[in-house]
Amino acid sequence: MNTYEIEIGGKSLTIQHGILAEQANGAVTVRQGDTVVLVTACTADAREGIDFFPLTVDYEERLYAVGKIPGGFPRREGRASTDGILAMRLTDRPLRPLFPKGFRNEVQIIATTLSADRQHQPDTLITVGASTALMISDIPFNGPVSSVRVARVDGEFIINPTFEQAEAGDLDIIVAGTNDAVVMVEAGAKEAPEEAVLEAIEFAMQANRAINALQAQIAQEIGRAKKPFTPASENAEATAAVQEYLKDRIDELVATAASERSDANKAIRQELVAHFGEQFTPGQLADALYNVIKKAMRGRILTEGRRADGRSTTQIRDLDIHVGVLPRTHG
């Protein structure tokens, strides 16, 4: 068993490895107070023909963590709560962009609450555990990344506050970040000033960097060698052909780029397959179309200050509000 401990915001954060789920590619427990979560990371080979990254983050809440057994007729755990679903999203969002571009292997992150003291919130511990499990595994991952919650109570910032402290404060913000950048922010506030939010983010990032350093140390000491992964190179010939073919319709492409599943986008892909089907595969043409749209959209934003729908970078959409649409809803 390997145990690592760091003090964050005056509280001990403990990461352990080597007791549970040893058959997973990576597994750790993370503890703060008497709240303990087990996080495992597993992978499988990519399915043939898959064109997206199948990352799954699952959070298993368990009543036994607080010493209870489900009562009544169904004596089993129910579906995930709203907080549980949000915890999954809060973990998925920082992790997903840190996998190598073009990685298509199936990856599952499973977090289980083993103990809950009803004071320390487990959501940020799950992100720390997931990143650590990936860091020590053989799964390609460009981490570490950490996440902490910051509350402002009576003008003072508190790292990973208790439920009561978070409820009493005027700012409750979750910040996930690597050593170099903020990756995700999720916040709620009671009319907190912008300066306080920015200060809270920087305060959180100091803690994240300390936890990231601990993760790097753990990976160096007990981490496994990463599986080799070579991303598929861009088909420059297909991109050039699509660029030339659609050069007079770039504005139309950018305007319909809001969704890869839009009817206009599908029609253009079908047109490209009909025209270049003997030279390139449908997958190569789809990738080429994506690259052409991305380059055009990025160029428009950086050089002209215009977004896909024609708005400037400082302009928001017109808001349209209707009241009294339904007679009884919301009282």
3D structure, described in words:
With 331 residues, this protein is α+β, with helices and mostly antiparallel strands. It folds into two domains: 2-222, Ribosomal Protein S5, domain 2, CATH 3.30.230.70; 236-304. The protein has helices at 82-95, 123-136, 163-168, 194-222, 236-245, 250-255, 263-276, 282-304, and strands at 2-8, 11-17, 26-32, 35-44, 55-60, 106-115, 146-153, 156-159, 171-177, 182-189. The strands form two sheets. It has a six-stranded mixed sheet, covered by helices on one side. It has a four-stranded antiparallel sheet with strand order 8-7-9-10. The N and C termini lie far apart (57 Å). 31% of the residues are buried.
Q: What topology does this entry show?
A:
Layout: E1 2-8, E2 11-17, E3 26-32, E4 35-44, E5 55-60, H1 82-95, E6 106-115, H2 123-136, E7 146-153, E8 156-159, H3 163-168, E9 171-177, E10 182-189, H4 194-222, H5 236-245, H6 250-255, H7 263-276, H8 282-304
Parallel strand pairs: 5-6
Antiparallel strand pairs: 1-2, 2-3, 3-4, 4-6, 7-8, 7-9, 9-10
Helix pairs in contact: 1-2, 2-4, 5-8, 7-8
